[in-house]
Amino acid sequence: MEYKKHIKKTAKVLLWVVGTILGLFLLVVLLIQVPAIQNKIKDEAVAYLEEKLKTKVAIGRIEIGLPKKVILENFYFEDQQKDTLLAGEKLAVDISLFKLLGNEVQINSVDLKGITANVKRDKDSVFNFDYIIKAFASEEKKEEEPSEPMKISVKEINLDRIRATFDDKITKNDLSAYIAHFDTEIDAFDLDRLSFDIPKINLDGLDLKLKQGRLVEEAVVTTREVADSLAQQPNLKLKLGTIDLSRIKIGYDNQDTALRTGLQLQKMRIRVNQFDIAKQTIELENLDINQLKGALVVGKYERELAKSVANAKEQPEATPGMPWQVKVNQADLKAISFRYDDQNAAPTPKGIDYKHLDLKNFNLVGEKFVMANEVISGDIYAFTVQEKSGLDVQSLKTEFYYGKKNAHLKKLYLKTPQTLLKDQIAVAYPSVESLSKDIGQLAIDANIEGSRIGFKDILILVPTLADTDPFKRNPNGVMHIDSRVTGKVNNIEIPKLELSGIGNTTLDASGRITGLPDAKNAYFDLTVHNISSTARDIEQFVPKGTIPSSIRLPGQLSLDGNFAGRLDDFMTNLNLKTSFGNAKVKATFDQTRKNAERYKADVDVQNFHVGRLLNNDTIGRVTLKARVDGTGLDPKTATATVKGRVYKAEYNQYTFHDLVLDGNIERGAFVAQATMDDPNLTFDMNTTGDFGDKYPAVKLKLNLDIADLEKLNLHAGPMKIRGTVDADLSTVDLDYLNGEVSLHHIMFANTNGEFALDSINVLATTTAEQSALSLRSQFADADVVGKFQLSKVGQALSHSVAKYYDTSPKVAKAKPTAEQQFDFNLKVKASPLLFRMVPDIKALDSIAIAGGYNSVGDTLHVAGLVPKLTYGENNLSNAVVQVDTRDGALVYSVTVDDISNPSIQLPYTNVSGQVKDNTVAYTIQLKDLKNEERYLIAGILQSVDGQTIIELIPDNFKLNYEPWTIDPANQIRLGNGIYANQFELSKDGSSIKIQSQSEAPDAPLAVDLKDFKIETLTSIIQQDSLLMGGRINGNALLKNLQKTPTFTANLNIDEFRFKTDTIGNIKIDVNNEIANTYDAKVEITGNGNQVNLNGKYFAANQGFDLDLDVQHLEIKSIQGFTAGNLKNSSGHLTGNFKITGNIDDPNVIGQLKFNDGAFTVVPINSNFKLLNDKIVFDDRGIWFEKFSLSDENDNQLFLIGRVDTPNYRDYAFNLNVKADNFRAMNSKEKDNDLYYGELYLDTDLRLRGDMNKPVIGGNLKVNEDTKLTVVLPQSDPSVADREGIVEFIDQDNPFLENIKVNDTIAKTKFKGIDASVNIEIDKSAELNLIIDKGNGDYLNLKGEARLTGGIDPSGKTTLTGRYEFSEGAYQMTFNLIKRKFDIKPGSYILWTGEPTQADVNITAIYKSNTAPIDLVDDQLAGVSDDVRNQYKQRIPFETNLIMKGELLKPEITFDIELEEGNNSVSTLVINTTETKLAQLRQNPSELNKQVFAVLLLNRFIGENPFSSEAGAVTGESMARQSASKILSQQLNNLASDLIAGVELNFDLESTDDYTSGQRQNRTDLNVDLSRKFLDDRLKVTVGSNFGLEGQEQANEQMTNIAGDVSADYQLTKDGRYRVRMYRKNEYQVALQGQVVETGVGFIITMDYNKFRELFQKSDREREIEKDLAAKKAKKQAAKKK
């Protein structure tokens, strides 16, 4: 009992103790919940902390919710610097306090709101909270036994408005962070097992900024340590659920690495299925990102950065572990932008810059993304991205896969603005590593349909391709692809390959290729259905320089065919069609066996323009067929045949026809034949040879039958040639040449005639000891003898010359491998052939040049002599050239006794000096006709570092007879611009100085002139009169001489003269006060002139803004600039212009007016006047409103219209030229040697088109007053006189006919002209052609022509129409005998096209009185002497010269006819003579003999040409005939005043008369008596014939008084209209009786200047009609009133 009692008491006490404890605990808990108690606790705690920390501490409220809740509100902790250390609105922690007793920390929730924390660490490594740790630090206790680790767990965390900063002076980190809201739930938090389960993370609003200083080494080491610590935790288990991030903003700035980055995220959600670090596996169910903006900038850093990183603590490399596996089941990324900028790398100007990226509009929707175990795969449903470079992926869809053995892109759809790729690409391989060993095992299955690739996209990704073709020239090109490729690389099949879109290029092909990648052994079986392209496209495709500049591709081309075989053994059949022409090639080629290659080819070229292909305008289209069949490529062992035919080939605008080639080679021996059968080139050539020996041997024989060089367009002017070429070369090698080439039987023909050429022989002999070359011809001989090799002579000479003067001393020179030594001589002979070949050579004495060269010692000597040479108007006399090597220098001298032409006369010229050590010393001396020294200039020319230095030697420097002083330090340096230093010439106050402003490349060049006479320099090139003259004062500064030269100047030229005309004073002022702007003022004054040019020139764009004011400019002042074509100029010019724009696009506005202008055109001696008209310049070009030119008779020529031009280089014409009876020429023989006279024209011409194709049309008429004389070019008789050679010609040689040349004017040298002009020649216009000025032969023509002349754009001239002659004459002179032929009316020339192919039908008549006795003597056998003597009577004959056929190849025949109406001989004589003439016409040779007998001897020729029965003209008969003429004149003079009112005329004629059969003297007197009646309106004339001497004919009335009667009556008083009645009594020998003729005639007499005036009314008639019309009008008006 008592035991129980004690137990009860004990229990009771324990219960009270426990109850008390619990009560106290509950009391404490309750008290803590009381605000007053809590405040008390708070205050005690604050006081305690402030006492302990010695800093300010404030707590607004403390709430302790035992057993697990602690809340702290409005707390504040201040650091020792009185800055905020920690402050916050609320800190609430839900923790299980009782579990702390069990060594476990279980935090159910953490809730922070409005927290601010500022942490700092100074440079002494002291944190701003270290004082708190020290305040609560206790003494060190003894080490206790280790206890179990505390277990920690956290379930929920909520953060709102958290702001924290961290400023670390050690790590130089400056961190500031603000979290708007963060909450998470943690299902598992096991630190012991490193197992964490976080199903939810939500972060809404984060603003993080971190700045790092220079602490690279520590950062690198720390980074490595952290990374390694994570890698060494394989047991870490982290399970994540959903992660939501929104309104995230992060900024990072690293001063040491100059790295700056920023990130702005609007929203991101991640659903994590698995995050297994041990297995290195990450699987995301969803990855959604919306509106992410990021930037990473790498600023410029110092080079020490790399060293700092390299010096960081070495860390062992981590052992490679299992690769990470990442899966994303679904991804949706929207509105992502990212910018990356590495400022250490210069931005690339084009393309995507991976160091300066700016990505925008990045969107991705896809699923099943996997990156694991060397596999990358996924499905992209939508993808877009844009980059500042221009990359714009508008859409990407595909199923992609990359694995160990295969890869593919299926359901591919990639679209950009330029690119579209569709369908699939799949490859397969045993392994990726195996591809590097055998890429042939790569299998391809690609199907690309309806796709395209934009070059713009390629250039964005690979901008370096921008400078390569085809991207360079076609950067915006789009290539369309339609292709199917299957198989392995070593056996690939291409069923379809279609490409297009790049320009006009398309490709359509198919085939199979086996054996790749070994291209040498690969087999190709390809079919090209079509490849079409253009030249522009091909040039874009291939790299620059691939196609030589000498090749021009066809504008359009297409190719189809096939190719089968290997590259060394193939068969092909290709068909090429181009805009140049077409070609077909069918060939087989097998080179698998060396030296036994097999080949066979057929080539068919149709009308292919080879010239365009070779960029050679001289070559045109070619049509040919050729076949080659052979074995072997080594000519020593090859066996082959070649056959070909060139059907046509155009060269130099001529089409060659029918060239046949046939050749074969068999083991080195070859035979070849070539023939051509062209109308203008006919030849056959046979060649044999052998390649079997060390050197090839060739024999050639060329028979040139005809070569018309003019028709072949190989010679300007007629030239034909034929001949034979024989060549026998036993060794064909430039360094071992033996053989002979001979040209013989050569004949030439040109306009000067046909002539033969002696043979031309070239002989080459080479042995081991000596080489020799020789040339022998009639115009030149040459020999070269020595020991030399032709292929190495040039190199040796260059090396030797470089010893004395080397322009590139730094460039290594190849030394001659063998000695080169030779002597040479050349003699050019004054052969007549040379004068014919070069007509401009008027005089020549033999030219001799001799010399020698030896590469050992680099010695060279040359001696030349040109005694006399006249070429055109240029004369050179006694020129001596000497070059020698002496004292290590090359010494030279050139002396010419006389150099002259119409503008220059240099009586004595010497240039001498030496070349040594890259220095040329020279002395130039000129003397006058009196041997007085006029110019002496000495100096040196040096080559230094690639630049040329010129210096003048001051000693004895002389210009125009006068000594000048020059600075000894003068220098001009050429190379990198022009540099002049102290270059100053001076004399008696006159000077010229040139000085560069600095030694910089292309530095400005200053020129100063003082009282310098222009003629000091110009007088060297003049002869009789000064070219230019005047005095210059001032200075000029020249700039940019190498690129765009500009200058500033202040110059005055006083009394400037050009030729003999004084212009006046010229002032030039150009300044450069504004950069790149030149202000110019130019003024011409004096001599009546006032011209001002003011304005600006802008160097930057070569622009100008100028005002030209021509106040007064005498036309005579500019007369000298017309090269002597104008004289007697008068009047002046006025005008003003505004000139703007630039050089490429000038704009001229203004006008130019001619005031009382007049001048004489010297070559035609015509005076013209300018009638105060003006030329207007506007924004379109030049305008001629009605610009007129008047001749001396005030007849005007008008120029009306416009010349439009955009740049004053290209012109378009719209002009009309009109004139009425304008005298274009009024010259005499002294004025012009080739043409002179008077030429009157009517014109109505139109000029249209432009400079490339001017179009001319209209009418041109040569009027009646024209009297034009044209002198045909005369041959130089001096050449013929010099010849002294009799040339024998085989008249039977058919070549003489083939080689004759014809003049032609069928084509003009002007191309592109389109002209068609109607030409009319008035029948009264007189044209004289002086055929031979020496003997006086001329042709006088009058006639009427209506022609149409034209020129087409190719230059071909045409002429159509008929020129019919009404009268004219041809004067022929032979020795002292002159004969005049009268052109028969009706003769004509008819043009039907080409001017040279006109039809000619001209008959010229020479009339003579000749006895027919010698002509018909063989027909008078047996007749009596009386009858015979009747044939001795002189009767009129007409000798006809008849020209018919082509104009340049007329058929000239002759004929003799009796003049019609021959009444002086009997009918028998006439009939017999006619019969004989008819017989002669059947025998042209006999007829021609009689024709020339009549022309030269004035008689016919009998069987004995030295005797004649026609009788000679005796002295008696000549005296009687002369006396009869004198008596007739005297009788008329005596009778003129014998009877008043009566006119008497006498005609006394004395002749030889054979009409009776015997020679008799016959004298007849004709007397006419006239009297006027009825106020002189009636005139009666009575005449009679009186036979004073001679026998009377049968029935002839020897005296017939008043046998002839005529009466003229004037119907009008002025005698304009008359009536004539007449009676004529005349004896006819053929009728043996008198014949009386009676008749009446009506006569009209009119005066006119022009034929049309005959049909016009006179001025008087017009006045009468005008008066009558006026009176009639008045009467009608009066009636109306």
From TrEMBL:
It is found in: Membrane. GO terms for biological process: protein secretion; regulation of protein targeting to membrane. InterPro entries: AsmA-related, DUF748, TamB_C. Keywords: Membrane, Transmembrane, Transmembrane helix. Residues 992-1180, 1189-1632 form the Translocation and assembly module TamB C-terminal domain. GO terms for cellular component: plasma membrane. Its main location: membrane. It holds the Pfam family TamB. It comes from the Bacteria. It is a single-pass membrane protein. The chain crosses the membrane at residues 12-32. PANTHER family: DUF748 DOMAIN-CONTAINING PROTEIN (PTHR30441). This is Translocation and assembly module TamB C-terminal domain-containing protein.
